């Protein structure tokens, strides 16, 4: 049984838990607000994050390594001190860049050679380097270094990729144990999550889930989804794979997703989520509500004096109208982006609170049905 994760209750396959870390306890299911380079895009401060109910923030190993540099951040006391955030941080390993920078990298057993997307200089990153960078950042949770194969890749390619990712995971575990024992390590209690891969091949996913479970890690992620497959394929993979991951450890669905994706993921036993949608879409004038996504750039909102969503207590909805935010975007004022990002992150964080309450009260099945119906029924 995990000493860090307590399973409080279940409702079907939906899990309600607590995850204890050196930087505080996370109530799950949880959405991690994405601050790739140690900041939420949209002029949102860490004080703002605390105010809108953020439990845990996510930053990216590769991006912080190439700018400003993990060694500099270590000298400044680690990422928590650097960005003035006293709650948990999860750092992605840089492995997703093996997928997203496909035209700028070369994969070998030792690791991956990148060409920086900023200035083109050569970077090598393998399991050991990823762990060293994340140790320098001193995040709460470090993700294992992996390759995310394309969802439609040939079976033989996926088999070879997953086997290599497993070997990398073993190396990550060994290196993290070494790093956590060093005298100058900032966070000697850094945790490691392994990543399940296998594209859309159920049997590869299941076999990999069994193997990584044997390593007794702090948590497990399902990676390589939301990268081109359909929602139905994603749900099928979760249905087949999650039962083979430990119920007494957190399960993290990487890079997912929409509010409906999250509701469906929780229904299938997922604890952790992250996605850039609420911030990215907010910066482009799109707001999430319980009745779906609305585009405040549309002319019909020019005279709409309602808040973004009736009953919402976010900073934007407490003080400003749709008409005013519409005006800010038309005038290209940064405040418009900031208010929309705050609203969307508040919506996601408090959706997770609604989900936790529904599981606690053993009514998650009804919550899922009611939320889906309302989300697909626009109110404007």
UniProtKB/TrEMBL annotation:
Record SUPFAM superfamilies: tRNA-guanine transglycosylase
Pfam families: TGT
Cofactors named for this entry: Zn(2+)
GO molecular function: metal ion binding; tRNA-guanosine(34) queuine transglycosylase activity
Alphabetically ordered keywords of this record: Glycosyltransferase, Metal-binding, Queuosine biosynthesis, Transferase, tRNA processing, Zinc
Cofactor stoichiometry and binding remark: Binds 1 zinc ion per subunit.
EC number, UniProt record: 2.4.2.29
Stretches the record annotates as RNA binding: 255-261, 279-283
Catalytic reaction equation(s): 7-aminomethyl-7-carbaguanine + guanosine(34) in tRNA = 7-aminomethyl-7-carbaguanosine(34) in tRNA + guanine
Active site, per annotation: 92 (proton acceptor), 274 (nucleophile)
Residue ranges annotated for the tRNA-guanine(15) transglycosylase-like domain, each copy included: 13-376
Membrane-spanning parts: none
Subunit structure: Homodimer. Within each dimer, one monomer is responsible for RNA recognition and catalysis, while the other monomer binds to the replacement base PreQ1.
Entries under NCBIfam families matching the protein: Q_tRNA_tgt, tgt_general
Name the UniProt record assigns to this protein: Queuine tRNA-ribosyltransferase
Organism: Porcincola intestinalis
